Amino acid sequence: MAYLPAHDKRLLFVPIGGSGEIGMNLNLYAYNGQWIMVDCGMMFADSYTPGVDLILPDTSFIEGEKDKLAGLLLTHGHEDHIGAIPYIWERFGCDLYATKFTAELIKGKLKEAGLLDVVPLHIVEPRKPFELGPFEVCYIPLAHSIAEGHGLTLKCDAGTIFHTGDWKLDDEPLIGPVCPSADLTALGDEGVLALVGDSTNVFNPHSSGSEAEVRKNLIEMVQGMENRVLITTFASNVARLETIAAVAKASGRHLALMGRSMQRMLAAGKATGYFRNLPTLIDEDHIADIPRDKILIACTGCQGEPRAAISRIARGDHKRVHLAAGDNVLFSSKIIPGNEITLGALFNDLAKNKINVITEKDAFIHVSGHPGRAELKQMFEWTRPHCVIPVHGEARHLMRHAEFAGEMGVKHRIVPQNGDVIEISKSGLKLIDDVPVGRLALDGSEIVSVDDNGLAERRRASVSGVVTVSVIFDDDGALAAEPALALLGLPRGDQIAFYDMLVAAVENGLDKMKSSARLSDDDVENVCRIAVRRRCRKEIGKNPGVVTLITRREHIEFR
Amino acid sequence: MAYLPAHDKRLLFVPIGGSGEIGMNLNLYAYNGQWIMVDCGMMFADSYTPGVDLILPDTSFIEGEKDKLAGLLLTHGHEDHIGAIPYIWERFGCDLYATKFTAELIKGKLKEAGLLDVVPLHIVEPRKPFELGPFEVCYIPLAHSIAEGHGLTLKCDAGTIFHTGDWKLDDEPLIGPVCPSADLTALGDEGVLALVGDSTNVFNPHSSGSEAEVRKNLIEMVQGMENRVLITTFASNVARLETIAAVAKASGRHLALMGRSMQRMLAAGKATGYFRNLPTLIDEDHIADIPRDKILIACTGCQGEPRAAISRIARGDHKRVHLAAGDNVLFSSKIIPGNEITLGALFNDLAKNKINVITEKDAFIHVSGHPGRAELKQMFEWTRPHCVIPVHGEARHLMRHAEFAGEMGVKHRIVPQNGDVIEISKSGLKLIDDVPVGRLALDGSEIVSVDDNGLAERRRASVSGVVTVSVIFDDDGALAAEPALALLGLPRGDQIAFYDMLVAAVENGLDKMKSSARLSDDDVENVCRIAVRRRCRKEIGKNPGVVTLITRREHIEFR
Fold first, then answer.
1. Nearest-CA neighbor of B18 among B409, B401, B348?
2. What is the pLDDT of residue B1?
3. What is the average pLDDT score of chain A?
4. Which of A4, A69, B137, B398 is the most core-located residue (most Cβ within 10 A)?
């Protein structure tokens, strides 16, 4: 059954991901009986999903509406905006739209997934309006921490939406045009019905600062440095990579780029017109040939990812690059919440070897890609939206953003949650329904719900361990062999005395059952579980999961 | 074999815990053939030890020397200084020394562990020297974020050690005396051979700030607040609890204290002369009877601990206290690294209900208990140590502290690691040996190494899942029944088709073996493991652990 009546004249906004979390952005808009999707991102797994690589938005709602889905607009190339495409595109299967650099990154992903020839991907020009379903869409270039960040204007008879995407204001972004404030003012003059915008840095009362300032500081700092200099940053920050090239030039150092994602970004950037002024790069194999004070290495791993270049170098298990006392590692990056411990360990590994570590806490060598309140204020002044819907944030960010919009005189605000169906109209914002949403986990090669039983079992096992009991019964329910147990993850799990104790507990428990009860698998499982747990709690203070495998005489055939 | 020769005239320092980590402080000093221990702390477990509550220092070295261990000096009552006592005291079994409040906290722990009548615990007076083994010991009161923080002077013929403990400078600490700078200057005049000191906040170039400033700000803030006000903080911060009482008084609110550790600190404080000016406290049961703008609640959970009062209140599953829109929660605390995600979730839960959240990022409502570089400098100027050994820090903190001591003109510095045996003498610091150290985990009721196999199995299971295979063989090695499998933590683990596939893989693998090979348990285990893993990798992209339980005809007895 279709959700959207044909020619439905309501203008709807439905966040599927990114409202209530920072990551996996996926938003839907509907008008005149058709949907468009904006962004299709993933997020990284946390301790709730051990052994899982990626978290993806559950798109089952739009899968049921896919015949009315006109297309997917990608605002920019960060993983939290494009990362889910190769995993879930087939579920809704619409055309994709992106500017050239973003499209190049998407192509790389599709290629890896064997989908390059399957997914229709259209390259769009910024500031050139085009029709998509019921909307006239226009990509508005905005500064961000990747090349080709864009807001979107979505115009329809019901009014104009300005979907900001991820953005900031930067008078000297170094890559891309400065903010087209005249366009935004003109848009405000025409009238913006609703602004749907980035809440990430709403707790910063100031402006995010300029990439040019970072460049100036990095140049100054590296010019004063002896020995080797490594700078680690987010590979997707094209401006920062160009900055690092400028730093190399200004400090008379050769430049080397290390790490797979650096290479990928370099290739994507070159293919789309960036990195024109890059010097000849030193190959990883030849870094050792360059005098220590004549090399600048840009590398991946600014979040402490264990397999990234800088972590391997810090641990001393990188094949080609070894750092020594007096060398310098600059983290031109922020610490993403949750990575504090991993990064602390990396800083310690470097410090132990007397390598100087400089982070954004020591000097202004990183700048955020998201607007502080000073920038949000400016944007509200330009566009003068009738309504504001904060997205791209956890609950507290969205609440504060809505509150701030109120302080700035915006009449209508709503704090959305994933799945909310919000009607946008001249009379304001109305929560009219909610649709199913959720998180999916890429577990091995399978996509499962984050609430999947397998994941729950793993979490439980990681805390309490697991005992598997194998019992063999005669026809009459008598034990035909000593129970065999597999103890996993228990203290004293390798002590024979403890093993024997558990076997005795199982035998004893089964012994006390009526023989008829032993004919019931459920009853046997219960007794084994209780016996093992009771003994484990008493002996080792743990309450393990217990699984019982039952084999009966009728299943056994001896020759 | 004894490590220390009788009447050995070397002055030795051996950190067993706390050098290279923030937590589980345990330090040893030796002179004249005898040892003393300073502090005996624990630390909290992390993702490397899932399901573990506490991490404890491995004291096996001093266990071998316990006949020469004169006593254990506790500098103050924080868990990272006294928390391991009830778990490991019996291993070395010496007398304990502490000032009255610290002793009261230790008594509480000993009582819970049933050790109150077993452990000799001596209450010492600050600034009154006493003999312990080869040292003349004196407790020097220093400000810290708990009542009765102390540095220790340890005097022997070889010279004077000043062991700072955890400390800061505070002109208005509100609890305890201000820093006895004259004593420290006098100590410097006499000559300090070595200062062994707190490195926690060496990356703060300034001073930590005063508790009085926090009190002033909290009073001002709460006076301007409507509705309910909750303040959450570290329960052990007696001065802060007194501050909260002062805030209640100044804002005309009744005070309630919630949470078990608040009650424990209150009792310990009252028993030792603190909390004299506390107002009559409102019982948890009667909070609901007080008008919303007439109550101030102090509660536990400032690190987002899921079972603490504030987390339960925020989730709406506290029996007696419910917050509403417009209420206020103040986090008078810092975020301990690693707790960012949990605390972020707590902030979100509160924000969703339109409860105002104020943290130390918004206002100066918390002050650290550890010295910034301005305070370290002052301490060096007072005590003028010949040598400095930084402790109480991760590698990067210790490195920076040693470097800073050098900048301040201290001649001899060394960066210790747990287990280092460092000889302290007029000619400087010398690393002369290292002894076994490590971390122990309290897993259930068992104390195991953090590298215990059970823990490794749990970590592995949490990432990859586990398959247990039960096989029954005839005398000749033929399968006598269909293999039974228990699938734990696998995607598709509940799909019959997938289960059947794995059974077939096992049967197929066993089938291909020579029947003589099937008589070897090792060979059968190998084949089962390879068969299950190969199939799992192919089907679901996971590489589970595989355990095989083998039962042979000779073990089975049918009637």
1. B401
2. 53
3. 96
4. B398
Window 521-540 of A: residues touching B by CB (8 A cutoff) are 536, 540
> Rounded to 5 degrees, what are φ and ψ at A455?
-65, -40
Please tell me if residue A504 touches chain B, with a CB cutoff of 8 Å: no
- Chain B residue numbers with beta carbons less than 8 Å from the beta carbon of A458 are 461-463, 465, 488-489
Closest chain A residue to B540, measured at CA: A445
Contact B149, B166 (CB under 8 A): yes
Residue A97's SS3 state is strand
**Chain A (391-410) residues lying within 8 Å, Cβ to Cβ, of chain B:** 394-396, 399-400
CA A267 to chain CA centroid, nearest Å: 22
pLDDT by residue (tens digit) across B331-357? 999 999 999 999 999 999 999 999 999
Residue whose pair of structure tokens reads 């991907």 in the numeric block: A121
Range list of β-strands (E), A87-171:
96-98, 121-123, 130-132, 135-142, 149-156, 159-163
Other Cβ atoms closer than 10 A to A324:
11
Residue in A closest to B342 by C-alpha: A338
Cβ–Cβ contact A205 with B under 8 A: no
pLDDT digits (tens, 9 = 90+) for A24-67: 999 999 999 999 999 999 999 988 999 999 999 999 999 999 99
Q: Which residues, including other chains, have CB under 8 Å from residue A552's CB and lie 6 or more apart?
A: A472, A473, A475
> Does B182 reach chain A within 8 Å, measured CB to CB?
no
H or E segment at A205? none
Q: For A93-108, what is each residue's pLDDT tens digit? A: 999 999 999 999 999 9
Residue holding tokens 């702390």?
Answer: B41
| Closest chain B C-alpha to A275 CA, distance in angstroms | 36
| φ/ψ of residue B336, rounded to 5 | -70, 130
Whether the per-residue pLDDT at A466 is higher than 70: the answer is yes
| Closest alpha carbon to B42 in B339, B337, B442, B458 | B442
Strands (E), A341-493: 356-358, 387-391, 412-413, 420-425, 428-434, 439-443, 446-449, 466-473, 484-488
Question: Angle A509-A515-A518 (CA atoms, 0-180°, nearest 5)?
Answer: 65
Residue for token pair 């009877």: B289
Residue B438's CB is within 10 A of a number of other CB atoms, namely 17
First to last CA, chain A: 59
| Residue B277 banded pLDDT, cuts 50, 70, 90 | confident
Of A200, A194, A163, A162, give the one whose Cα is nearest residue A412. A194
Q: What's A393's DSSP letter?
A: B
The pLDDT tens digits for B394-453 are 999 999 999 999 999 999 999 999 999 999 999 999 999 999 999 999 999 999 999 999
Look up the ipTM and state it: 0.92
Which residues 249-288 of B have a C-beta within 8 angstroms of A?
none
Cα B320 from Cα B99, distance rounded (Å): 37
* Distance of residue A356 Cα from the nearest chain B Cα, in angstroms: 10
* Beta-bridge partners for B304: none
- For residue range B284-328, list pLDDT tens digits in order: 999 999 999 999 999 999 999 999 999 999 999 998 899 999 999
Does B238 contact chain A (CB < 8 Å)?
no
What's the token pair of residue A407? 């302080």
Distance CA A250, CA A222 (A): 9
Helix axes B181-190, B373-383, angle to 10 degrees: 50
Of B399, B457, B494, the CB nearest to A351: B399
The type of residue at B543 is N
Distance of alpha carbon A22 from alpha carbon A17, whole angstroms = 9
b/e string for B442-466 if b means 16 or more Cβ within 10 A?
bbbebbbebebebbebbbbbbbbbb
Residue whose pair of structure tokens reads 């290479």 in the numeric block = A263
